Amino acid sequence: MKNLIFFLFVTKFIIKLILLFLSYLTDTRSEILEKVFVYFTEEDFQNGLIYHRAGFGVSVILFLLKELGFLWLVFSGWFLKLEKYLYKFANNKKVVHEIFFFSVLVILQFLVFLPFNYYFGYVLEHEFEFSNMSLGFWFWTELKSLFLEFLFIVPSSILILWVIEKFPKFWFWITPLGGLIIGLFMTILYPVLILPMFYEVKPIEEGNLKKSILELSNKAGVEFSEINVILESEYSKHTNAFFTGFGERKKIYLYDTLIQNHSEKEILSVLAHEIGHWKYDHNLYGIFLEFISSLVLFWILFKFYIVLQRSQIFIFESFASNLVVLVFLYQLLNYFLNPIDSFISRKMELSADKFAIEVTNDPNSFIESEIKMAKDNKSLLNPHPWVSFFYGSHPTTLERIQLAEEYKKQSVPNVN
Fold first, then answer.
1. CA distance 363 to 353
2. What's the CA gap between 324 and 74, in Å, rounded?
3. Computed from CA positions of residues 349, 354, 357, 359, in that sequence, does the dihedral angle turn out positive or negative?
4. Number of H helices, E strands in the chain
5. CA 112, CA 80: separation in Å to the nearest integer?
6. By the 8 A CB rule, do 230 and 128 touch?
């Protein structure tokens, strides 16, 4: 069993390292570059390439720290030592001790990765003129993220430990079921509790844009309760839009940067894509598929856990440390599902793209919105195909544009 775990870890490590360098190299095939320059200038291409490659050396250091550092912590028994040290502050009360243990882990993780978050989230974003945040505002945002991690990680970790202890033969399916329920609740609670913690949100102004959005939603057969604008410009110049909620409580959220930088037709094209996700219930399918994959992985973990306890490969003297081991194994196994998850996600995105093009019957605006968003976000225009295969949750910009071009060829008389 120990050899199998090390084999999986080494395999994962090598794959991630190779993909990291392939990501830097990008796709340099002449046929890809020729297609890029049909829609983009050399300056657009270089902007995306430079932004993508920025901080590559720091990315390598971060990769090594995450992979090798976590491996060492798990196998060295450091977590057990930390637990024993914290026991004296908990007065031998199990729940209090677990609160201390997971709280310390959350804080340590925050402190270890804070310099990297500062470099990628503040320094580089300012260097490329994306971020509008002051240093104090950025740090305050990081503290709010830390607070949310406390609210989620500490109670959920204690709950999982309780489930494993009380239901030793059934925890492998109870835990994923709990994750499914939490996922559904978070979809509802996110716009109500979490989003307002980070963004100022206001209803969309009355006018032509709101009227056009309502007409589009009626045409698509999707109803929603609110159209809101997120003041992303206080944070950055990135653009986006999304839906959230279920049933009649669905809500549209537009970044104000999207409204500022795009024409009305382009905005409608972006929104039609999001409507397509809801039309095809992609959000629910995604949550359900995550539940199925978690169920499979937890069953495998259940089998691993029994063998590991018997063989004493890891230190199982302390119950809370067991959860850390399980997290390590879960992340290890889950990594190999990345290509499947990415494939399904890309299929959903393409179907939403197709819906957007068809419902608006405006492939030209779809293409223009893709070009403009790629420019605005300094997107990489030629990602390496193996990186896209393994990690790509969305089709490439060229693939999305090609979809619209194919639609134009098939319905020339109807194109706006």
1. 10
2. 7
3. negative
4. 19, 4
5. 19
6. no
- Copy the structure tokens of residue 406: 């194919």
Q: With bands split at pLDDT 50, 70 and 90, how would you rate the model's confidence at 273? A: very high
Distance CA(247)–CA(197), nearest Å, equals 24
pTM of the model: 0.87
Residue with tokens 């399918």: 285
344-372 pLDDT, tens digit each:
999 999 999 999 999 999 999 999 999 99
Q: Residue 73 corresponds to which amino acid? A: L
Which residue bears the tokens 């070009």?
A: 371
CA distances to 104, 147, 238, 323 from 153, rounded to whole Å, are 11, 10, 29, 12
- CA pair distance 299, 8, nearest whole angstrom: 17
Crossing angle between the packed helical segments 319-335 and 135-166, to the nearest 10 degrees = 110
Q: Quote the tokens at residue 414.
A: 């109807």
Spatial CB neighbours of 56, under 8 Å, sequence gap ≥ 6: 24
Q: How far apart are CA 374 and CA 397, in angstroms?
A: 7
